[in-house]
Amino acid sequence: MNILLASTSTLYGGNYLEYLTEELKSLFQGIDEILFIPFARPGGISHEDYTAKAAEFFLKLNIKVKGLHEFEDKTSAVNSAKGYFTGGGNTFLLVKTLHELGIMNILKYNVEGGKPYLGTSAGSVIGTLNMRTTNDMPIVYPPSFECMALVPFNLNAHYLDADLTLKHNGETRETRIKEFLTQNNSKVIGLREGNWIRKINEKITVEGPESTRIFEVGKEPYEIKSGSDISNF
Amino acid sequence: MNILLASTSTLYGGNYLEYLTEELKSLFQGIDEILFIPFARPGGISHEDYTAKAAEFFLKLNIKVKGLHEFEDKTSAVNSAKGYFTGGGNTFLLVKTLHELGIMNILKYNVEGGKPYLGTSAGSVIGTLNMRTTNDMPIVYPPSFECMALVPFNLNAHYLDADLTLKHNGETRETRIKEFLTQNNSKVIGLREGNWIRKINEKITVEGPESTRIFEVGKEPYEIKSGSDISNF
């Protein structure tokens, strides 16, 4: 497999996907067109505009971008594509749409076959075991929380350390993930913004400028360094 | 109906339920025992300890507290109770448990019949139309997101204004609720900590020290004052 799952699409003060430019040249090497999956975006920006935003970035890499919403036969469009990019937005909406269109498993089959896959935020979560560690609001009811399981763990994107100055009783991110671990037995990767997960063939690593926080049943959360191998998680 | 749906159980720096003491005397007037529903709490504290915490507070009001987990026949326990308190925790776990035990509708029937109901946080969300505006992590998959619909709107508990100083690309609470409105047509009550919703007979008001933020399709979010009537929302 050849996949990149990023915590976020855009760094604070940066442009869309810009910080990933060198990694994306490597991910999509030899590919001149990819399929963009815009279904996470619930509003504010249309599927056309969202696809145009992705296309604008990939133009610099001489890669054309087509939006999956443009195709009547979406199964065929996924099977014919040379590579994929799923953008962020609302994970519940994305997972519901992919299950209802019947393309979650078709996408999985193609990516497991070696076609390159890029996800950002919600698009990264669907590469993992399931969406049970998303931060998003459950604005729609998906027929299942299961995802592609391209990697053998759960992901918390936009992982955020607790702000101890906040006078507020909402749960911290760490508390929420610990609650997940009372009901589930998979490891959770707390991926800070700026970091990404890279899988090349069978090897999986965490990359980026920040350390990454790992949560697992029966252990205190701990940090791993950029470049760490998480293939056997 | 006679219900109180609070944003939070505990104010910053305060003790459990303390800020609601006067309101709770009025809510549970003439009642000497209530049933506590501890199922939102996924870990860290057992159902026994969580119930003991509620009992400790209600002792001051001369009200006994029994935990629903103590009863083998939970339907009968709900039907026999004189009043209810559902505590906070994880809304997904709470809603899944209530649906699986078959008591969501039994509780609704009893509360609609006039028995007093107190909810805090997740326990308040289950009093509304559905759980689609919870902040919680989807750590388990409920058979449905539908709730008791004791009030005709959605609730966002622990409502938090955007922190514009934060260098982070996770969505703000307001953005998430606006995403909800692209997929749903009900109003959303953004209930800040310290505020609560009170329903007495058919009249519903928002109460507490803060103003309350209202979200609805086709309008900019707006604020309403404490005491405002939201019966016709």
From TrEMBL, chains A, B:
Q: Which residues form the signal peptide?
A: none
Pfam families listed in its UniProt record:
Peptidase_S51
The family database entries (SUPFAM superfamilies) matched by this protein are listed as: Class I glutamine amidotransferase-like
Record's InterPro entries? Class_I_gatase-like (IPR029062), Peptidase_S51 (IPR005320)
Q: What is this protein called?
A: Dipeptidase E
Keyword Protease listed: yes
What molecular function terms (GO) are annotated for this protein?
serine-type peptidase activity
Please give the family membership noted in the entry. Belongs to the peptidase S51 family.
Coiled-coil blocks:
none
Give the matching PANTHER family: ALPHA-ASPARTYL DIPEPTIDASE, PROTEASE S51 ALPHA-ASPARTYL DIPEPTIDASE
A biological process term (GO) from this entry: proteolysis
Give the stretches traversing the membrane.
none
Alphabetized UniProt keyword annotations? Hydrolase, Protease, Serine protease
The answer to whether keyword Protease applies is: yes
